[in-house]
Task: inverse folding
C-alpha cells in the first residue's frame, strides 16, 4: 500500500514537473530568446499540440522497457533509426548522438578541431552552434547574414576567411537551406571543411538532395521543439566512411579500435528509448512535412498580398524547406509606424502565438565573455581577442533581429483555414495600425 501511494505520488509530481519543464524548455528553444506572445482569451488559431504521439510511440517505448536493453549497443532501436535516417537522407552513414550540440561536437572532435582553428558561422542561430565550437577552444568567426533569406551570406563568409580558417559551418536556419553552392565553392578553393548545422532542417533539400550530405558532414537535433523529436537527441550524417568511423568512436569514449581518436572522445550516445521514439516519429514525418510546406506556401502568398510582411525567401537551390520556423520580416512603415513590439502584442491579443526570434548573438554577455576568457587569451593572445569583438560586428544581422517575427512549426500543422485566420488577423492589425500605434 505504502509503496503504491509513493509511486502514485511520484508519478503525479513528475508529470507536473515534466509538463512545466517540457513547456518552458520547448518555448525557450522555439522562441529563443525573446518570446513575445502567448495565448489570448479566444485564440484565433490553436497550434497542434507538440510533440505528437500515439499508441505506436507507447508500444515502441514499452518494447525497449521490457527488453531490458536500454542503452545503445545491445538493442536494435538506435541502429534501426540510424539506418532509416541515413536511408531517407541519401547518406551513407548516420551516427545518432545525445543531442544536436553533441552531434556538432562529435564531428569537430573527430576532425580534431582545436585551439588555433577558426570556424566560420552565422550570427543568426541558436547559441549551441557557438558553444560547440568553443567547447573545442576553436575560435568562432561570425559572417553576417542576408536578411532576405535569414541565412549566412556567402560573400561575408569569403571576407571572414584567414589562414587559420579550418571549417565553414553554415546553419540551415528555420529549416530553409543556406547557399550550399557558394559555400562549397569557397571551401573547395581553400581546402576547407564544410559541416552543415542542419539541427533545424531534417530532410530539407538543396537541389533535390537532403541537407547533411552537401558538406563533409551534417548535424541534426531531435530536441523537444524540433520537427523530428525524441525529447533530446541528435545525429551526424556523412558520406565519408573514415569520418563516420571516427565519429562513432569519438561519441563512444574513443573506444572503437578501428578508428581510435587521438586521446579524445566522450559519451554522446543516444539511448534505445530515444531511438524507439524516433522510429515512431519518422512514420508521421513525411505527412507532417507536406502539411507544413503547403500551409507555408499558402501563408506566404497571403502575406505578400498584405504588404509590409516579407516572408523568408528560399534560395533558388533550396528545393525543400523543413519549415521548422515560419519566419518573416515586419516593416513598421507599412503599418503606420506601429512598432514590431506592438505588432506582436496585437497578434498575441488576437490569440496568435509568435515570437520576435533571436537577438544579436554576438552582443550577448555569453558570447562577449569569450573576449576576456583567460584560456582564449593564452591561445590567441589578448589583442586577437579584443580585435575579435570588432571582427564580430554583423550589421545586417542586427537589422534582421529588429524586424523578424516567427511562428513555430506546429502552427503550420493545422488546416488551411488556420492560415486564412492568421492572414485575417494581420490584415486587421494593418487596418487598425494607426490607433494601435497611438495606444
Ligand atoms: C541551429 C541549431 N544548432 C544546434 C542546436 C543544438 O541542438 P540541441 O538542442 O539538440 O543540442 C540547435 C537546437 O536548438 C539549433 O537550433
Result:
Amino acid at each position: 500500500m505504502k509503496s503504491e501511494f509513493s509511486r502514485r505520488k511520484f508519478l503525479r509530481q513528475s508529470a507536473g514537473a515534466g509538463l512545466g519543464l517540457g513547456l518552458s524548455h520547448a518555448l525557450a528553444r522555439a522562441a529563443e530568446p525573446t518570446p513575445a506572445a502567448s495565448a489570448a482569451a479566444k485564440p484565433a488559431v490553436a497550434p497542434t499540440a507538440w510533440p505528437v504521439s500515439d499508441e505506436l510511440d507507447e508500444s515502441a517505448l514499452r518494447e525497449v522497457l521490457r527488453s531490458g536493453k536500454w542503452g545503445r549497443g545491445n538493442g536494435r532501436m538506435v541502429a534501426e533509426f540510424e539506418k532509416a535516417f541515413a536511408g531517407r537522407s541519401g547518406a551513407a552513414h548516420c551516427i545518432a548522438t545525445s543531442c544536436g550540440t553533441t552531434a556538432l561536437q562529435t564531428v569537430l572532435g573527430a576532425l580534431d578541431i582545436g585551439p588555433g582553428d577558426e570556424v566560420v558561422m552565422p550570427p543568426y542561430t541558436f547559441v549551441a552552434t557557438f558553444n560547440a565550437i568553443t567547447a573545442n577552444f576553436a575560435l568562432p568567426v561570425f559572417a553576417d547574414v542576408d536578411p532576405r533569406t535569414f541565412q549566412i551570406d556567402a560573400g561575408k563568409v569569403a571576407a571572414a576567411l584567414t589562414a587559420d580558417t579550418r571549417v565553414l559551418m553554415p546553419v540551415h536556419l528555420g529549416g530553409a537551406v543556406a547557399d550550399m553552392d557558394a559555400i562549397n565553392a569557397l571551401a573547395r578553393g581553400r581546402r576547407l571543411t564544410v559541416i552543415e548545422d542542419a539541427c533545424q532542417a531534417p530532410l530539407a533539400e538543396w537541389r533535390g538532395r537532403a541537407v547533411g550530405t552537401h558538406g563533409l558532414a551534417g548535424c541534426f537535433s531531435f530536441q523537444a521543439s524540433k520537427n523530428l523529436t525524441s525529447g533530446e537527441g541528435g545525429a551526424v550524417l556523412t558520406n565519408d566512411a573514415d569520418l563516420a568511423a571516427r565519429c562513432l568512436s569519438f561519441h563512444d569514449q574513443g573506444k572503437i579500435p578501428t578508428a581510435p581518436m587521438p586521446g579524445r572522445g566522450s559519451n554522446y550516445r543516444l539511448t534505445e528509448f530515444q531511438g524507439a521514439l524516433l522510429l515512431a516519429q519518422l512514420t508521421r514525418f513525411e505527412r507532417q512535412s507536406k502539411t507544413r510546406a503547403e500551409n507555408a506556401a499558402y501563408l506566404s502568398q497571403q502575406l505578400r498580398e498584405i504588404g509590409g510582411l516579407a516572408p523568408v525567401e528560399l534560395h533558388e537551390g533550396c528545393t525543400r524547406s523543413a519549415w521548422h520556423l515560419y519566419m518573416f520580416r515586419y516593416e513598421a512603415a507599412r503599418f503606420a509606424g506601429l512598432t514590431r513590439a506592438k505588432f506582436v502584442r496585437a497578434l498575441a491579443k488576437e490569440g496568435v502565438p509568435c515570437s520576435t526570434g533571436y537577438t544579436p548573438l554576438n552582443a550577448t554577455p555569453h558570447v562577449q565573455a569569450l573576449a576576456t576568457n583567460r584560456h582564449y587569451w593564452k591561445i590567441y593572445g589578448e589583442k586577437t581577442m579584443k580585435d575579435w569583438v570588432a571582427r564580430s560586428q554583423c550589421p545586417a544581422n542586427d537589422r534582421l533581429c529588429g524586424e523578424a517575427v516567427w511562428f513555430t512549426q506546429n502552427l503550420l500543422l493545422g488546416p488551411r483555414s488556420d492560415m486564412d485566420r492568421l492572414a485575417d488577423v494581420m490584415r486587421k492589425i494593418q487596418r487598425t495600425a494607426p490607433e494601435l500605434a497611438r495606444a
The longest strand covers residues 325-330. The radius of gyration is 22 Å.
